[in-house]
Specification:
With 101 residues, this protein is mainly beta. Helices cover 10% and strands 50% of the residues. It contains one helix and eight strands. A four-stranded antiparallel sheet has the order 1-3-6-5. It starts with a strand and ends with a strand.
């Protein structure tokens, strides 16, 4: 799940999103974050250690990254994706970000 699933930001603010994967048979090695909006930003997450059978990836958007998103539009969809299990299944969660002008 992605939290918050939806958020509205003021221009000039930073933002944090967390993607939590549950019922994992083993630790994730990586999580990929993408957005529906093309900008020059690259997104790097912090992947926490496995806690029981869940693991969280946190994406921090800087003020500059939020501004780059705002310059191309007000509404953006973020998706976090991980490959899990022995069958290498892709699991994802999606959230929505709105930036007010």
């Amino acid at each position: 799940s992605l939290t918050p699933a939806s958020a509205t930001l003021e221009n000039g603010s930073s933002h944090s999103m967390a993607c939590t994967f549950t019922d994992l048979p083993s630790p994730l090695s990586s999580v990929t974050w993408t957005t529906s909006t093309a900008t020059s930003s690259t997104y790097s997450d912090t992947l926490e250690n496995l806690d029981g059978s869940s693991q969280t990836s946190t994406l921090e958007l800087s003020v500059e990254q939020v501004e780059q998103l705002r310059l191309v539009g007000a509404d953006h969809t973020f998706t976090c994706v991980a490959t899990v299990g022995f069958s290498n299944s892709k699991v994802s969660a999606t959230g929505h970000l709105s930036i007010s002008y």
